[in-house]
Amino acid sequence: xxxxxxxxxxxxxxxxxxxxxxxxxxxxxxxxxxxxxxxxxxxxxxxxxxxxxxxxxxxxxxxxxxxxxxxxxxxxxxxxxxxxxxxxxxxxxxxxxxxxxxxxxxxxxxxxxxxxxxxxxxxxxxxxxxxxxxxxxxxxxxxxxxxxxxxxxxxxxxxxxxxxx
Amino acid sequence: xxxxxxxxxxxxxxxxxxxxxxxxxxxxxxxxxxxxxxxxxxxxxxxxxxxxxxxxxxxxxxxxxxxxxxxxxxxxxxxxxxxxxxxxxxxxxxxxxxxxxxxxxxxxxxxxxxxxxxxxxxxxxxxxxxxxxxxxxxxxxxxxxxxxxxxxxxxxxxxxxxxxxxxxxxxxxxxxxxxxxxxxxxxxxxxxxxxxxxxxxxxxxxxxxxxxxxxxxxxxxxxxxxxxxxxxxxxxxxxxxxxxxxxxxxxxxxxxxxxxxxxxxxxxxxxxxxxxxxxxxxxxxxxxxxxxxxxxxxxxxxxxxxxxxxxxxxxxxxxxxxxxxxxxxxxxxxxxxxxxxxxxxxxxxxxxxxxxxxxxxxxxxxxxxxxxxxxxxxxxxxxxxxxxxxxxxxxxxxxxxxxxxxxxxxxxxxxxxxxxxxxxxxxxxxxxxxxxxxxxxxxxxxxxxxxxxxxxxxxxxxxxxxxxxxxxxxxxxxxxxxxxxxxxxxxxxxxxxxxxxxxxxxxxxxxxxxxxxxxxxxxxxxxxxxxxxxxxxxxxxxxxxxxxxxxxxxxxxxxxxxxxxxxxxxxxxxxxxxxxxxxxxxxxxxxxxxxxxxxxxxxxxxxxxxxxxxxxxxxxxxxxxxxxxxxxxxxxxxxxxxxxxxxxxxxxxxxxxxxxxxxxxxxxxxxxxxxxxxxxxxxxxxxxxxxxxxxxxxxxxxxxxxxxxxxxxxxxxxxxxxxxxxxxxxxxxxxxxxxxxxxxxxxxxxxxxxxxxxxxxxxxxxxxxxxxxxxxxxxxxxxxxxxxxxxxxxxxxxxxxxxxxxxxxxxxxxxxxxxxxxxxxxxxxxxxxxxxxxxxxxxxxxxxxxxxxxxxxxxxxxxxxxxxxxxxxxxxxxxxxxxxxxxxxxxxxxxxxxxxxxxxxxxxxxxxxxxxxxxxxxxxxxxxxxxxxxxxxxxxxxxxxxxxxxxxxxxxxxxxxxxxxxxxxxxxxxxx
Lengths: 165, 976
Known about the structure:
A: three-stranded antiparallel beta sheet; B: 976 residues; alpha+beta; repressor (chain B); HIR1-like (chain B)
């Protein structure tokens, strides 16, 4: 039986512009006090084709964790656009939240991310190169509204699996 | 008879293998196949019983579902107390569930459904021993044992008081064991298996009493389960699947000589389950019929593979009722309600049926007393609960008594209405932490969340604790143990009382039960006026329910949301918010003078050791400005660099900055100091950490940050102590690595690697010269102006920083730590500077500074003691609490425990002890000089206490004489 289980993940400030940070409010429950910290990661899947383009947006230690219900906000910067393949920049991708204990991953929660141009014109005729590849703050406005997150498919794969201690 | 098939009770079409109704009749559990795991679901009973409740969408149908079993669940059984649920399944495991009262509703994350778990049941034990599917589990009549049987051909008896201890493994079956039943008087346990035998085992020595094979000779292993049952009077044991003349039967086995002369015939296929009604019945006495008392009889339900159910009365030759085609597939399990008038039946087809009988059909159920009388006359002493207390006197001698009772009933009614009003807000209450709603917390979470950087520069977030679990620790365990639970919220160590307790309280049939938890924790803040009587409390609570509920809501503000480390009890420190100002008034000059004196004193005695003090002293003597201090320190350290040699050996990490003595010598001596006490060390020491944060209190928000080895100046590494109090920060540096820190609103103290203890005021002023501990620190604790240090060599010291005196001086705990692997699991300091220790064996001690002795408090783990023992243990526990409260000089605790104790005495009918208490409280009515009687106890007037006790005594009619006596005498005293 799982010692740690995720109760809820709330996506804050959704939807929001591409360059604004991801912000998740994570609630979890722990059956007994943990000796060491939990490590949480946010991974942005740059391309569905290959794990090569996965970006670890941030990893954070969470502790101490006594028995009980806890919550925290996990904030991570937006992905680095230069590491995302141009073809995959606009469209649907996935952001993953994982939790590991002693290096062992035991929870993986996924969210679909839909990056789209808020401007209907751009949406109809997207530029060949995604706008954020252009240097400067222009990209922010161009790629504007992006990252609408909906809980979906990659739903909690091994949710509540065992914490090996 | 009414028949109902509640379609909403289902496992999404998957088979339901087991059903069991909770002893209190409010809920029932089903077990079976889930999506890709086993599934246990707890359902609300009222929608089954009442159509209105079924239609009401506000009444939840499903209370909780648990997917923890890895494979199909074959059996679910409530303990007789209703506190636990045991489930066994194909995953070879038995899980024991207990309701977590501390936690509000939640959803299963990741499951798309919006089905919230209204109740939280969590697995408290997983029992592993079977090497095959677990087919049946059964609690013994007094809940001390749990039996399980499996396809591994064994029956395992578990010690239900001490899971997962195995008392016995019963071997002897040569086939899959598929059913279990206990003898109602606890002498035997019977099991039925596919090996065509039914075996009866003795509970005395867990040996085989008899093996019955004849009726099963023709049986084939065709049924999934063989749930047999023992009649409530103990006379008959009825088997599942047996054969008689190639017809399927349920064999009746007589207790006397294990004779097999009778059976229940009629089912066309194998009998899978037999279940006796828990009640014994007698014929309804009809008007005009002969007065001849009829013989009591039992009632039994039989379910079969032929999908039909039959209900039999042992006084009839034919079944009372047979219901055919009740299900599409085999019947798997049957459960009677405790009143004996309803049954739930479940089937392999995944549905459940409910049958409701009337008393005209079944007869008059015997009361529990009559039942236990039957047991007693047949078997001698019965394990059933003695109901002596119920034999109340019939004659009422004093009208006052009635008045009290009526008033109490009225209060209960009021409370009920008040509680029903509260239930509407109950959901939100559950989501309230620290006086603010979850929503508020969420809004500010990012700001409040403590974020630090670890040594390697990584972010580390201290999560916000939104609910604590009742992990069976000290205070909470006791909550659930004794029937008085409601009012125990004020247990001394559990001032982190909790909102979830509320609904529980309002149902306690006692007037002050409900008002207690709300008032008691508040009372911790200060001396409670002695005259503040309980009856007054309850009146307040009942007459103004609106006023009582907000007070209830504010109670949780005592809960610390962030409990970094084990500062769980630091909320006590909050209780004296006015004090810091006082401490800072102390003239600094004097302080410095004292310090120097102390250092001087130390020096001749042990120059080398004092050297470690002096380097601590460096930053201290100039507490005025931080930057200046640092600067000076740098100068010093540079100087040091020339003189001393920084050591490289990492094990002797602390680099000593000795001014007076040669560094080399110090180093050696230090090493010796550190290593010498090693063999005597008993308690764990905190290891050096690179950095850590400690939340002292949340209101006012105060936390301590420690960063070790921040800067290396000239080969000397400095550690920084930072304290943030409501945004105001102060920091200081120490030359040794900080191992542990503690704080209250008045003081902050840290213990360093070099066995030094430094104490600062809330504003960062050093209050005491560094204290050199005799051995490395194990635990540090602060409450108010008291600082407590527990060293690894198990010596305990407590200082009153404010008065600058030692309260407890290096007392050795070896006496109470007898035994090789015993440690102190928790230690805390009361408001009065009295240390209270909780040992790893569950015992707790407090140290009385004036007597210099430890006094024990009874271990609080009573929760699963058998009932007979429970009474004695509860009594002993309460007596201990009263005595301990006296020792602790804590008046409100004394009052609380005394009232509880009295109430228990009243409920259980212990007249002599009660009389003694009253006599002592009352004292001599007619004043005489020779009397030794003291009119007060721990600052409370005894007679006021007695007045509080009176309504309690008035609850039991048995004590009406005592009640009248006391009241009359109190009246006389008042008139004087």
